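Subject: design request, 484 residues
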């Protein structure tokens, strides 16, 4: 989908041939002398459009205008949430008409959140998965033109929104692909394809190299499957080498059956989404290639399947992680933390300014925060504030969770340095406490996206979260005055 940004010129807007012209109205609307304003004023006066968020009027071939349809959308005060609601309602009307091009017009200059919401929502609602359909029906919209009074004033926000959308869509696409079409090898190929883009490099390690590195925890998870593991290393170099990078670690379990501690059959298919952390890292690199910020970013993806077999790791087995800690695997379904801990140790070599891991890590996180906010855990106040801010600006929200040492009590065992599970209470937190043991060498945050990375039920599908959040987090690091 192509996005363009142009300044508002009512005369040319009226004569623009397009499948649909969406006009976003706020409560602050004051009519001018042009034909469109006059029409809107009439419509409001007549009561045909209630001035309330989500209310709309759909007009076919409006007189004196060149568009096929005019949709007047009320967006209340014009906040991000209101724009999202209105745009998604409007798409509901337009979808069956299969529009190819649309114009999204703000009559009053939108604040940054309104524009971000319009771009991301339109992309989100019009996304169509096609890879494994025999008669693919892709998205009909090819071109979206955003029109606003002062386009230059919002150029930077617009570019960021459009780049974030490209990243979100890549993450969604990989998240949605069935596990037999998104194996560790496929993910590695996707990363290698990204290395065609400017300033991006990619290196892929296989089982031999991973064994040589001593990643015993990662290997233990992968060993039950015939599909060989991949360890993906992406690098975006937008700044001199001397500048410490941010490392993003994405959980890449391409299918999580639970292993020997096998999961129940119901909804097990959804465990194809257990690589959404990895997909979000791919998405962020896609966005970085567009935005070209002056920072360095490393992406690490431990990718493998978690399956039961005669070679699988068994409950009670003790394995040794890359940094020498022994781990008693009490539950083979707590595999995410095992692949992540070795990737965290690997990230030490980059002497990072910060390491963020992103993982569909625990069902307990879904219980704690649902699908609205991703959870994050950190003991670093700077990262915490930056993540909360990025969540707000990207409208991809997150929430801080605790890391008190008392939560680690349940991970104690007689048979190893640490167990891979504690009891059920506080399951998202005890998982974070496990990971924290591998983060002594750098500032760190863990994002649990189990509740936010995909939707179940009728609208089943990956959301592309938290690509928007991560893009804003990284772009804000570049801004002058921020610590490097
Ligand atoms: N991938 C799952 C987490 C998950 C479960 C995400 C359901 C979304 C929905 C993870 O590998 C897992 O199985 N975690 C276990 C941990 C438990 C054994 C301590 C869980 O949450 O049940
Ligand atoms: Mn699991
Ligand atoms: Zn998992």
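Subject: RE: design request

Done. Sequence follows.
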């Amino acid at each position: 989908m192509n996005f363009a940004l142009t300044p508002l010129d009512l005369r040319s807007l009226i004569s623009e041939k397009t499948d649909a012209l969406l006009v976003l109205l706020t409560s602050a609307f004051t009519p001018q002398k042009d034909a469109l304003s006059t029409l809107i004023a009439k419509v409001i006066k007549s009561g045909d459009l209630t001035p309330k968020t989500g209310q709309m009027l759909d007009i076919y071939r409006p007189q004196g205008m060149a568009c096929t349809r005019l949709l007047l959308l009320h967006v209340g005060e014009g906040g991000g949430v209101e724009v999202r609601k209105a745009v998604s309602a409007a798409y509901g009307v337009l979808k069956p008409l299969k529009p190819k091009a649309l114009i999204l017009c703000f009559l009053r200059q939108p604040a940054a959140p309104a524009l971000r919401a319009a771009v991301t929502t339109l992309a989100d609602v019009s996304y169509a998965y096609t890879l494994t359909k025999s008669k693919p029906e892709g998205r009909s919209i090819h071109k979206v033109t955003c029109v606003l009074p002062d386009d230059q004033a919002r150029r930077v926000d617009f570019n960021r929104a459009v780049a974030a959308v490209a990243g979100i869509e890549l993450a969604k696409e990989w998240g949605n692909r069935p596990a037999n079409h998104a194996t560790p090898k496929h993910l590695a190929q996707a990363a290698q394809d990204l290395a065609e883009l400017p300033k991006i490099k990619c290196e892929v390690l296989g089982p031999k190299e991973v064994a040589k590195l001593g990643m015993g925890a990662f290997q233990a998870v992968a060993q039950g499957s015939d599909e060989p593991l991949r360890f993906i290393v992406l690098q975006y170099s937008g700044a001199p080498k001397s500048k410490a990078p941010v490392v993003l670690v994405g959980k890449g379990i391409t299918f999580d059956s639970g292993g020997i501690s096998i999961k129940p059959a119901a909804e097990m298919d959804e465990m194809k989404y257990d690589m959404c952390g990895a997909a979000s890292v791919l998405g962020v690199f896609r966005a970085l290639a567009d935005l070209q910020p002056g920072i360095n970013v490393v992406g690490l993806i431990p990718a493998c399947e978690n399956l039961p077999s005669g070679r699988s790791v068994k409950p009670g087995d003790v394995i040794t992680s890359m940094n020498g800690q022994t781990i008693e695997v009490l539950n083979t379904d707590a595999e995410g933390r095992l692949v992540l801990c070795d990737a965290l140790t690997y990230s030490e070599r980059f002497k990072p300014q910060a390491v963020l891991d992103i993982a569909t890590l625990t069902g307990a996180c879904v219980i704690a925060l649902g699908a609205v906010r991703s959870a994050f855990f950190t003991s670093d106040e700077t990262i915490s504030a930056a993540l909360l801010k990025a969540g707000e600006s990207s409208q991809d929200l997150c929430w801080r969770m605790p890391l008190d040492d008392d939560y680690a009590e349940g991970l104690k065992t007689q048979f190893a340095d640490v167990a891979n599970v504690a009891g059920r209470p506080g399951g998202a937190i005890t998982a974070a406490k496990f990971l924290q043991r591998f983060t002594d060498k750098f500032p760190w945050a863990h994002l649990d996206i189990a509740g936010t990375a995909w939707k179940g039920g009728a609208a089943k599908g990956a959301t592309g979260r938290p690509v928007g959040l991560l893009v804003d987090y990284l772009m804000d690091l570049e801004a002058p005055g921020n610590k490097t």
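Residues 14 and 65 are 5 Å apart (CA to CA).
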